Amino acid sequence: MSAIVEVVPAERSSVPGSIPFLVRLSILFTLLLLFCAVFAQWLMVHDATATNLLNRFAPPVLFGGDWAHPLGTDNLGRDMLSLVLRAIQVSFLVAFIGTIGGAVIGTILGLTAAWAGGVVDDIIGVLVDFQATMPFLVLALALLAVLPGADMTLFIVIMCIYGWERYTRLARSVALAAKESTFVQALTVTGTPGWRIYLLHILPNATGILLVNMSLNFPATILAETSLNFLGIGIQPPDTSLGVLMGLGRNHIYNAPWLALIPGLVILLATLSVSLIGDWLRDKMDQA
Amino acid sequence: MIRWMLGRIGRAAVTLLLLLAFTFFALKISADPALQILGPDAGTDAVHAFRAKWGLDEPLWRQFLAYLLNVLRLDLGISYRTTEPALDLVISRVPATLALMIPTTIVAVALGVPTGILAACKRGTSWDRGITLLSIIGFAIPNFLIGVLLIYLFSVKLGWLPPSGIVDWRSYLMPVFIMAIAEAAIFARFTRSAMIEVLEHPMVETALAGGFSKAKVLAVHVLPNAALPLLTIVGLFAGSLIGGGVVTENVFSWPGTGRLLVESVGARDFTVVQCTVLLIGVTMIVTNLLVDVCYLWVDPRLRDAKRRSK
């Protein structure tokens, strides 16, 4: 009789150290995007903000355009290739700072909750509840509506709020479990100060889960950033991001579809490849 | 059990209070209502008189109390943009949003749960890998991106479907499909892991050894047990449904609350933003509370454990 579960040994992961093809591709593409983000200034042939009203909606090479503007020009005659490079730079910067900011805030709060316990733990717990009940997009929209002078810095700060509560939960539960272990008790007995125990001895135990959570959080941050900017709320022109470009391009979907398709493709491949890497990392963690 | 329930309700109440404090302070820092309503050219006397009349010069905690009372009386202020009561404006947009969300939920469950079960039963095979990959893709693609692509394909190129607003039943196809993809991905993923957890349980092996058919073991023993952990993602699901709804409604110029929220943020119509945020927050808090109650009701272990511990 056959079992319900047909466990077939996964041939790809049987060789230790081998990386699935899709993940390799994803890593390659992510590295390419990182390269573009870091060296955007030098890769740009044209000035990303230079408008040329005589050369609006020039099609990309694939749509029958010429090589002066390989990805065509937008509704103001700006060079799409340069715009996309600049947008990759901004979107990655926002996603990086947002992910790291959220991780740092969340982890500190989680460790504090476990360390202090009592009322502090309760207060942090309520904050976590609040964040978990409020969809981030709605919260960010509300904050961007009421805070005066919305600029890039404010936008990045708001992105740091994204997903902090998951780090808090993870860090808190790891720290609470570690608190009971003998090595922490031994450290406490020898008089090691609390902050030292938490930062140097307990935190390293949580690094694995926190890093995996970061890799899963990163594409979600890109999604949140592009969604907000697609809605036209957040980064304002002449500053740009992949979401801003996508939002602008959607207005010209009838006459110049590439304006939306090009940034869309970049967003799609970026979130997809980082997600695949994150998922693979999580599987690795689970197996270990 | 009652104490546990009271604890949950207390926690929900505190979260609600935090939500109200958030909207109150958001409104406070957003703008001076005196200048908003009287206009920037109003004289200082008029502004002072206005502040005194509406209690704006009182201590903050008294203003907050007054705000709470107003919210209790369902008085959420007037929209700066349309001069309608903000609550009426928001409520008038709710049906259109529900008209998207209810079919989305049905499609997402119908798509996500069976694929999750399939992936779990065929664990480790190419079925499983394919479904996992699809769920990652479904989760990673932004709503607005598929939205714009589908509009380009079906409305611009083929001219089959209306690109925006509610025209007829065909208007629902694209938005519901787009929102359902992301939500189905969540369901597939969680169903798979919940199923795998139960399938690894020795009781499954025992039942199979006892000669029950595969189908019967799945239906009677595995599915009910796997359904429990699925309850926990209802809260997460509701959140992502609302967030996804905001974006999707804007892509399709759908006359729902999500579009109203973004319009109001753009027009800095703070009372309406506040009202929408409150409505969404309250919905989420109530949903999570209901999930807790359901848990208690559905899971006999929890029910009995609570009774014993009392």
Condensed summary:
Chain A is 68% helix and 0% strand. With 288 residues, chain A is an all-alpha fold.
Topology:
The complex is a heterodimer of chains A (288) and B (310).
Chain A: H1 21-43, H2 80-116, H3 118-133, H4 136-146, H5 152-161, H6 164-179, H7 182-189, H8 194-230, H9 242-250, H10 258-287
Helix pairs in contact in A: 1-2, 1-10, 2-3, 2-5, 2-6, 2-8, 2-9, 3-6, 4-5, 6-8, 8-9, 8-10, 9-10
Chain B: H1 2-30, H2 33-38, H3 44-53, H4 60-72, H5 86-121, H6 126-140, H7 143-157, H8 170-199, H9 202-209, H10 214-251, H11 257-266, H12 270-298, H13 300-309
Helix pairs in contact in B: 1-12, 5-6, 5-8, 5-10, 5-12, 6-8, 7-8, 7-10, 8-10, 9-10, 10-11, 10-12, 11-12
Structure explained in plain terms:
The complex is a heterodimer of chains A (288) and B (310). Chain A has 288 residues and is mainly α. Chain A has 10 helices and no strands. The longest helix of chain A has 37 residues, at 80-116. With 310 residues, chain B is mostly helical. In chain B, α9 (202-209) packs across α10 (214-251). The longest helix of chain B has 38 residues, at 214-251.
